[in-house]
Amino acid sequence: MQFLDDSLHPQNQDKVVITVAPYGPEWMPEDFPEDIPVTMDEQIQKAVDCYEAGATVLHLHVRELDGKGSKRLSKFNELIAGVREAVPEMIIQVGGSISFAPESDGEAAKWLSDDTRHMLAELTPKPDQVTVAINTVQMNITELMNEDEVGGTSLCEPVYWEAYREMTVPAGPAWVEEHLRRLQASGIQPHFQLTGMHSLETLERLVRRGVYRGPLNLTWVGIGGGFDGPNPYNFMEFIRRAPDGACLTLESLMKNVLPINTVAMALGLHPRCGIEDTLIDQHGNRMTSVEQIHQLVRIARELGREVASGPEAREIYKIGTWYKDADETLAANGLAPNRRPGQKNVPLRGR
Questions:
Q1: For 93-148, what is each residue's pLDDT tens digit?
Q2: Distance, CA of 229 to CA of 256 (rounded, Å)
Q3: Which terminus in the chain has less CB density within 10 A, N or C?
Q4: Which residues pair with 286 in a beta bridge?
Q5: How many other β-carbons are positioned within 10 Å of the β-carbon of residue 322?
Q6: DSSP character at residue 329
Q7: Of 335, 341, 274, 315, whose CA–CA distance to 46 is shortest?
Q8: Closest alpha carbon to 304 in 5, 7, 10, 8
Q9: 305/139 Cα distance (integer angstroms)
């Protein structure tokens, strides 16, 4: 991304699009009963509360009545329908991992099969986005956690701790290409969850080959454990290398969430918050998803940035926009064109 002399001036930045992840599938309701919704009505109301607080993108997971993350697509359909009716302007972003946890005590945690994960493209009603990882990678979310932050929660139970410590994200080439094909055929925009520079480079190659033909909504995920760590040099290099036309959100874990979100907003980028990312504030106290949104709204205003409304967030994300081929996709996202046969040196934009 390019930064001009006036790029840090708020009048030259997009309005802030706040993503909230309020369902926290890695936690059980007893870990934070004041803020973990269980019934369907509670889960819908949580989306309403977050939208009214200022979040316009809802990262959606679903719970069963026993408090465990749901793997039933029918439950996703039910929650999407309820949220769509209650807050029709909110961008619904389904978490592409669905749920990763043991089915019962003593069992290993498992991801759904590739065929079942592809069925996210058939959800009814249709979400606006499904998150998509690029490249299979380790996702040990416990690496940056410590006893002071998560002590006493269900995540510390040995079977859960080991499940999340050993978790990997299966996102190989064949699965990614087929998943993108199905999402695009259904008119669902992928939101790319990228673990570092290697995944950004793979995504660019997919665009150059015409596998993906749409806007680049990206999230840099700095949670360690196989993903980038929350080191400023990591995310600043990612920002530098991100295409000029991409829309970029920064995401991290626990006490890293607030400082990274603050940097993101100062740079003209976008934040993500919610109990899926952190249950606590900078002092180790429990902090609800709505409280986290209010905090980001206050900081955004101090920085001089306005918070996007639902329709404005849809325009920034280019929801519903698609391109005819690789050339148009490259141009729209600010990437250099593909090299033509016999062409020397670096192909220039705008030629």
A1: 999 987 676 667 667 777 778 888 999 999 999 999 999 999 999 999 999 999 88
A2: 10
A3: C
A4: 280
A5: 15
A6: H
A7: 274
A8: 10
A9: 33
Q: Is 270 left (phi over 0), alpha (psi -120 to 50) or beta?
A: beta
Q: 277-284 long-range CB contacts below 8 Å, 24 or more apart?
A: 277/21, 277/251, 277/252, 277/253, 278/253, 278/254, 279/24, 279/27, 279/31, 279/32, 279/149, 279/150, 279/153, 279/254, 280/149, 280/254, 280/255, 282/255, 282/258, 284/148, 284/149
- Phi, psi angles (nearest 5°) of residue 56: -115, -5
Is the separation of the CB atoms in 73 and 132 below 8 Å? no
pLDDT score of 305: 98
Strand segments (E) across 230-317: 247-251, 270-273
The mean pLDDT value for 309-321 works out to: 98
In the chain the first and final C-alpha atoms are separated, in Å, by 20
Q: For residues 186-198, give the mean pLDDT.
A: 98
CA distance 341 to 346: 13
Measured N-to-C along each axis, helices 289-302 and 40-53 cross at an angle, to the nearest 10 degrees, of 10
d(Cα 35, Cα 184) in Å, to the nearest integer? 34
Residue 62 in tokens: 């679903």
CB 221 within 8 A of CB 251: yes
Model confidence at 52, pLDDT cuts 50, 70, 90, reads: very high
Q: Among residues 56, 13, 66, 7, which one has the least CA distance to residue 36?
A: 66
Identify the residue whose tokens are 């196989």.
226
Give the span between the Cα atoms of 181 and 209, in whole angstroms.
Answer: 13
DSSP for residue 135: S
Exposure letters 41-62 (e unless 16+ CB within 10 A, then b) = eebbebbebbbebbbbbbbbbb
Assigned token pair, 277: 């990312």
Pair 194, 188: CB distance under 8 Å: no
